[in-house]
Amino acid sequence: MELAAAAGWLTAVSASAAPQRDAERAGLEQHLCELAAIVEQCEDLVCVTDRDGVIEYVNPAFERATGYARDEAVGAKPSLLKSGAHDSAFFAELWRALAAGRAFSARFENRRKDGVRYFEDKTITPVRDRSGAITHFVSTGKDVTEQVRAAGKLERAQRALAIMSECHRAVRTASSGDELLAHVCRVLIELGGYRAAWVALAGRDAAKSVRAAACAGIDSAEISALCAGWGDEAPGPVAAAIRTACTTVTGSVIAVPIPGEEESLGALVLGCGEAASPPEDEIALLEELAGQIGFDLDALRSRGLRRRAAELLEAVPRLG
Fold it and tell me: Is the per-residue pLDDT at 304 higher than 70?
């Protein structure tokens, strides 16, 4: 059935050619069947539309990658795969190239039938008849989702390594916890690419207040709106992260608990430019950073206590 569908489409396309003698036509049909078998069995995604962009044929690789069966795709337009990742300028450039008879190649971020996004390196080529008029468009592409995800994971790991390295350097020179946290917030924006970063330290008073120990890319008014406390009734991701000691993502805010010896010291809070949907590896890296912040705060506190003890000892009059 699939082979027949491909052969049928190829036969229809070739119908605009001049009438052939029986022998020539038989040879053409044989070639069409061979070509249909190749298209059906190749691992590249193949989609054919008419000149108005209406889908006339898709191969099995297209069905597997997109989740749309051939019967669902034929008669629709490729826009059924749009994810919203590409702006109007992208599609304007696409159609300018095709209208001029040029092929268009790009990496597309599309959406499967089940809503999951996938990436495809695609080339769309105009098909002309004997008179030179464009009659169809053929797109061929490779699903590169795994490569894109792997590259993104590597980039996030490299970014996290750079952030951790900066934080390790800062803890050696910082004179106080607040100075260290201010440096961490700046690094998260400069190297991490976040819109805003701040550190909320949990108060141990009866009101369970929250103190913004450091921030970057956000002002105190915005911080107050996000969290005024971490008690049982306090709303928002910051309070939830401190109470539960679990990373909480709400809207464009990621709140990561900073662990202490027995309970959370507070939360590392990150603001994204849009609704946050961080992958698991990014969450794991942020949690590792928050753990390092907790360790460094304890180290600075111990350093301060040792220094204070030494100062007190120096102040004690010598005996004898």
Answer: no
Q: Across the chain, how many H-helices and E-strands are there?
A: 10, 10
Sign of CA dihedral 284, 176, 210, 198: negative
What is the domain count for the chain?
2
Q: 48 near 57, Cβ under 8 Å? A: yes
CATH code of the domain covering residue 68: 3.30.450.20
Q: If you average pLDDT over residues 68-82, what whole number do you get?
A: 95
Domain termination residue (choose one: 143, 167, 197): 143
**Does any domain span residue 25?**
no
Q: What is the pLDDT of residue 1?
A: 40
More reliable by pLDDT, 226 or 61? 61
Whose CA is closest to 293, among 199, 153, 161, 162? 199
Closest residue by Cα to residue 93 from 104, 107, 82, 80: 104
| Structure tokens that stand for 144 in this block | 């590169």
Handedness of CA 267, 272, 276, 278 (dihedral sign): negative
Measured distance CA(142)–CA(59) in Å, rounded: 13
**Across the strands, what pairs with 258?**
266
Question: Is residue 130 domain-shared with residue 168, that is, in the same domain?
Answer: no
Say what the pLDDT of residue 107 is. 96
**Whether 48 contacts 73, CB under 8 Å:** no
Q: How far apart are CA 153 and CA 136, in angstroms?
A: 38
Q: If you average pLDDT over residues 227-251, what whole number do you get?
A: 88
End-to-end CA distance of the chain: 105
Please give the pLDDT value at position 261.
78
